[in-house]
Amino acid sequence: MEEKSDIPSEARDDPARSLRMALAFCGLLGVGILAVGAEHPAIRAAAGSVGALSIVTLSWNLRRKVGVNSREAEILAERLVAECDELEQKLSDVREEHQTLERFFDALMEHVPSSLYFKDIDSRFLKVNQKMSEWFRCGHPSDMLGKTDHDFFDVSHADDALKDEREIIRTGQAIVGKIEHEEFHDGKKGWVLTNKMPFRDQSGRVIGTFGMSSDVTELMETRNTLERERNMLRSLIDSFPDRIFVRDPGRQYLVVNRSMAEWAGAKSPTEMLGRRPEDFFPQRVTGKGMDEDLDLLAGEREVVIREWVMTDADGVDHSVVTTKVPWFDVDGRCVGIVGMDRDVSAERRARAELAETQRRLQEVMDNSPAVVSMKSRTGTYLMVNRGFEEMFGLDRQVVLGKTDEDVLGDKEVAQAFRERDREVLESGEVLPLDERFYVDGHPRWYATVRFPLRDDRGEIYAVGGVSTDVTDRREAEDSMRRLNEDLVKVNQDLQRAQEQLIQAEKMESIGRLASGVAHEVKNPLAMIGMGLELLARKVPEEDETARETIERMKRGIERAKRIVRGLVDFSSARQFKLDPACPNSVVKDALSLVEYQLRKEGVTVVEELGETLPQVQIDLPKLEQVLVNLLINAQQAMEKGGTITVRTYETRLSDVKRDEGLRTRSHLRMNDHVVCIEVLDTGPGIPEENLKKIYDPFFTTKPTGVGTGLGLAVSRKIVELHQGRLELLNREDGQGALARITLNACPPVAGEVHAGEAAS
Amino acid sequence: MKSTRLLLIDDEPDFTALLKANLEAAGGFEVREVNDSAKAIDEIWSFKPDLCLIDVVMPGMDGGDVVAKIRQDSALATLPILMLTALVEENPDSDDGETLTGGLPFVSKTSDFERILACIEKHLEEAGV
């Protein structure tokens, strides 16, 4: 369109010529433009029209003015008509194209998601799209034409818009990407992104403005959220005591927090951005980090965790743990490194102190003679001491974290331990125990205390156990007790010995007295006997009462004589003559003496006599007396009759008791070859309380007049003079009593023994 | 028939009296008692017994001393003597319960009268009385 502004100066001298020249020029220019192809369809259409009109006008003008001959004119006219047709055709094409362009424009206006408007120089709406009219709550875009923002918005908003538009008109400069807060017709508030541009006419003069607005509320909200989160993250990072940093692949800091900046000696985090670690830290510190960064960036490592020691400006060492990971963008590319340095000095110190405390505690426990352990609620060992290791023969590394069932071979012991722990857990109380364990196969006693361990809230989290070996103490106590018992026993023995001594003395006194007493008693007895004899002669046969009385008196004398005879036997110092004899012969002699009486009392005698018994040293009459005594005793024990078994056998002595009489002990020894003579009855047996007293002189269970109480004492003394043993027992089968005479089969001394000597 | 003379030497007059009564009741015996052993020898000489029954335990001269005195006198050496004493028990091995000790027969005072009598008669017979 610039071609119209430049008119040749010679055209002004001759108006007709000038007009022709102008028309020709215009026609050619229009055709030229069409041929060249203008950018804008409207321009092309205009150019086509102008070109065609100029050419038609020119051809007509030329024909009228020149007046040339018709042949030439016809040729010229035909050429012009042809050119004119061609121009008309082109004009039609341009119009069509113009219409297409208008459709495009309308479609654009209608479908673009933004609001579009055109305003004239006075900011009146020239054209708006449907979107715009909807936004302004106008029914149809045409309703807005000729109106201004003041018709739709409050004054301040409309004034702001007007100001913008005037500025654009004044400067010709567009306002691009302006974001404005807007209130929408539905009352919703939001954000609008607006581009405002100058609207020029064909000559480039600004004749108004046009613009496009889009609702960017969502975008803005997202942006605001992001901003908020970024600020929050920033605050967080800045307030974090650990040193946080983000570096790009070139090790330049992208992000650092305050803590990091302080540590690096920078004034602010910003000061560190774009700079490298080397700018703040010595090579010694950064060297290793560089290699790690390269590894992370190359994807060779996923994370780096390293503890190192940093000496600060005051020369204080700090334990630092550095953690670094690669930083990936949304496409998964590694675009840097995120890292954190944590000063763990305090933790390390606390841990070292704790370890030291624990070590001391362990040391104290290990040097304690007690067995100490601590178990969790689930029964796993948390701690044991050396005493524990030694007692169970287990290393603590094996024990810790395991249960009793895991480590103890004896499942019963493990079970017992578990039970006790449970008791403590349930009761929450201290449980004292006496326990016995076998250590190296020897039983050891332990005084154990099991107790609950509680946390700050008072909850039981573990069970502790302390066991002290009290075996020695216990043994000392035991031995003390035994000693005491022995003492008591010795005392008892002493008492018994004393009693025996007293008894022996008593016996001796009795013995000494006996002969005198016997004589003195026997004389009056003899006299009374004589008197009775005499009286019996004088009493008439028919006086039965008198005769009966005399018989009773005679029986009385017999009793007195029997007692005296017993006393004399007991104290007899008569000589004692031992000769080898068969034990069975003594038995037979004795049985023959009492045979009649036994039969009379309904007693059956069973003989179980050994067949090839060795001979024994026997004073036959004395031993016979003993046997008769035992047989009569047996018979008297069985009030309603019964069976007496007489048994002889040889054996090896296996039961010499500690508390046998001294005399017996000196004669009968373990493993001696002995002959036993036993008299067994089927009576009620000997009551327990009488077993010890039966050998005492004058002890008798028989009714008055039946026994003197001297029989067993005398019998025993006689057997002891045979260097043998007389026992009275209850039969093991519970059938009655058993009297057993045990005599050495090979007596050490043969010949005469003085009773007095033997007894002393 | 001439009665057999028995001299009872015993310090117990009650016993000698009763024994004497029994012997006399048994018949055939003339019995004299001596309750003081010191008078025993004189009494033997005066009474001239066929048999002396002598107790052992007596005050002053005991039975042994009396026997010794009798034996010292050759005229009395053969006088039959029976020791009648409470010191011994009846000898169960002999029919009359007598025990011979030191060449003298001993019989227990506490024996039945029948046994004492049997013993006396045995010794009288042995002595040819």
Automatic annotation (TrEMBL), chain A:
In what residue span(s) does the PAC domain sit? 173-228, 304-356, 426-482
| Gene3D superfamilies linked | 1.10.287.130, Histidine kinase-like ATPase, C-terminal domain (3.30.565.10), PAS domain (3.30.450.20)
Query: Which parts of the sequence belong to the Histidine kinase domain?
Result: 516-747
EC number(s) stated in the UniProt entry for this protein: 2.7.13.3
Instruction: Spell out the reaction equation it catalyses.
Output: ATP + protein L-histidine = ADP + protein N-phospho-L-histidine
Q: Which GO terms describe its molecular function?
A: ATP binding; phosphorelay sensor kinase activity
- Cite the PAS domain residue spans from the record: 357-428
- TM annotation in the entry: 21-37
Task: Provide this UniProt record's keywords sorted from A to Z.
Answer: ATP-binding, Coiled coil, Kinase, Membrane, Nucleotide-binding, Phosphoprotein, Transferase, Transmembrane, Transmembrane helix, Two-component regulatory system
Where does the source fall among the domains of life?
Bacteria
Q: Which InterPro entries match?
A: HATPase_C_sf, HATPase_dom, His_kinase_dom, HisK_dim/P_dom, HisK_dim/P_sf, PAC, PAS, PAS-assoc_C
Give the matching NCBIfam families.
sensory_box
Q: What is this protein called?
A: histidine kinase
From TrEMBL, chain B:
- Reading the lineage from the top rank, the first entry is Bacteria
> Membrane as a keyword?
no
Instruction: Identify the keywords attached in UniProt to this record, alphabetized.
Output: DNA-binding, Phosphoprotein
UniProt GO BP: phosphorelay signal transduction system
Positions of post-translational 4-aspartylphosphate modification: 55
Q: Which InterPro entries match?
A: Bact_response_regulator, CheY-like_superfamily, Sig_transdc_resp-reg_receiver
According to the UniProt entry, its GO molecular function terms are: DNA binding
The keyword NADP is assigned to this record: no
All copies of the Response regulatory domain together span: 5-124
Q: Which PANTHER family match?
A: RESPONSE REGULATORY DOMAIN-CONTAINING PROTEIN, STRESS RESPONSE REGULATOR PROTEIN 1
Protein name as catalogued:
DNA-binding response OmpR family regulator
Q: What organism, scientifically named, is this protein from?
A: Haloferula luteola
Q: Provide the organism lineage as a comma list.
A: Bacteria, Pseudomonadati, Verrucomicrobiota, Verrucomicrobiia, Verrucomicrobiales
